[in-house]
Inverse folding.
C-alpha cells in the first residue's frame, strides 16, 4: 500500500505544474485566444522566480520564510505577465497569427530561461550544470504542521507545499467564475462569437487582454512550482521538459473545463511517471511516455464524435477579431 500511496503522491506533485498551465490556457482559450506560448511562459515564470530567489538568497544571512516565498512569487508573476502582454499586443492589437506568435513566444521563453539560467550558474562558478536555491525552496516546501504525524494515507493528501493546494483553489475558482458569473458568461460569449458580444456592448479586446494575461500569469506559476517545490530549488537548463505541451494537451482532455483539469492533470502526472513503477524493458519506456498524448488523441476523437456543444472548443478559438467586419 505504501508503494501505491507514494505513486499517487508523486503523481499529484508531477501533475501540479500541468494543472497551472492547463488552467491558465483554459481561461485564455475561453476568450477565443489560442496561446501556444504557454510552454515558453512557464519557462519565463520559472526563471523569473529563480532570479528573484537568487538575489534574495545571495543578499541575506537569515532566510525569512515570508520573504523567501513572496519575492520569487512576485518575480514570477511579473515575468510571466510581461511576456504574456507581448503575446496579447501581437495577437489582439496587431492581430498577428496566434499559432505563429505562440510558437515564437515558446521559443523565446525557453531561450530566455536557458540564457539567464546559464548566466546565474556562471556567476556562482558552479562545478555542476545547475543552480541550487535550496534555502529558498525550503520555504516553498513547508507542509501543514500536522502532516508529519499522519499515516501514509493522510500524507497522501496533506504533505505538500502551499502551491499544490493553490493550484486546486485557482482551478475551482476559475470553474465557478466561468460557469456561474456574469464575467464568465461574457468571456464565453466572446470566445463563441466576438461580433455578437461586441454588438451587445462588451469590450472584446479588453476581455481578451484580461483573460489572456490572467491565464499567462497562472501558467507562469506552474513553472515556479516546478523549480522551487518539485525540483527542490534546482534550476538546470532544459530541465522543464515537455510539461508545457502536456498542459496544453490537458485542455483538450478536460474539454475546456478547469475543474476537469484537476483530475486530468493528476492522470497525466501518473502516466508521466508510470515507467518508474512498472518493470518493462528499456526499449519500451518511450512507448509508456507516449501514453498522455495517446489518451489525449482518444479523448479528442470521442469528443468530436459525440458533438456535444458544451464539450467543444470555443467557436472563434484562434481567430483574430476584426471589428470593422462586424
Amino acid at each position: 500500500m505504501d508503494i501505491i500511496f507514494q505513486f499517487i503522491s508523486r503523481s499529484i506533485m508531477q501533475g501540479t505544474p500541468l494543472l497551472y498551465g492547463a488552467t491558465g490556457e483554459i481561461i485564455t482559450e475561453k476568450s477565443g485566444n489560442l496561446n501556444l506560448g504557454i510552454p515558453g511562459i512557464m519557462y519565463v515564470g520559472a526563471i523569473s522566480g529563480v532570479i528573484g530567489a537568487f538575489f534574495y538568497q545571495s543578499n541575506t544571512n537569515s532566510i525569512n520564510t515570508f520573504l523567501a516565498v513572496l519575492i520569487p512569487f512576485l518575480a514570477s508573476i511579473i515575468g510571466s505577465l510581461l511576456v504574456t502582454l507581448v503575446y496579447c499586443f501581437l495577437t489582439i492589437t496587431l492581430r498577428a497569427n496566434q499559432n505563429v506568435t505562440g510558437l515564437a513566444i515558446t521559443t523565446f521563453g525557453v531561450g530566455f530561461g536557458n540564457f539567464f539560467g546559464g548566466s546565474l550558474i556562471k556567476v556562482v562558478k558552479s562545478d555542476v550544470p545547475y543552480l541550487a536555491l535550496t534555502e529558498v525552496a525550503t520555504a516553498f516546501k513547508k507542509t501543514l504542521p500536522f502532516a508529519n504525524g499522519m499515516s501514509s494515507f493522510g500524507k497522501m493528501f496533506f504533505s505538500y507545499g502551499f502551491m499544490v493546494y493553490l493550484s486546486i483553489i485557482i482551478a475551482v475558482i476559475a470553474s465557478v467564475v466561468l460557469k456561474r458569473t456574469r464575467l464568465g458568461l461574457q468571456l464565453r460569449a466572446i470566445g463563441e462569437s466576438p461580433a455578437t458580444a461586441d454588438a451587445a456592448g462588451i469590450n472584446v479586446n479588453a476581455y481578451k487582454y484580461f483573460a489572456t494575461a490572467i491565464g499567462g500569469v497562472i501558467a507562469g506559476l506552474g513553472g515556479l512550482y516546478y523549480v522551487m517545490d518539485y525540483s527542490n530549488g534546482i534550476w538546470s537548463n532544459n530541465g522543464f521538459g515537455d510539461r508545457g505541451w502536456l498542459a496544453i494537451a490537458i485542455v483538450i482532455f478536460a474539454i475546456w473545463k478547469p475543474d476537469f483539469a484537476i483530475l486530468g492533470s493528476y492522470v497525466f502526472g501518473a502516466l508521466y511517471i508510470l515507467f518508474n513503477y512498472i518493470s518493462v524493458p528499456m526499449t519500451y519506456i518511450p512507448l509508456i511516455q507516449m501514453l498522455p498524448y495517446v489518451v489525449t488523441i482518444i479523448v479528442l476523437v470521442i469528443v468530436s464524435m459525440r458533438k456535444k456543444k458544451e464539450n467543444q472548443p470555443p467557436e472563434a478559438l484562434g481567430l483574430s477579431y476584426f471589428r470593422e467586419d462586424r
Residues 2-30 form the longest helix (29 residues). DSSP finds 14 helices and two strands in the chain. The CA atoms of residues 196 and 311 lie 21 Å apart. The mean pLDDT is 90.
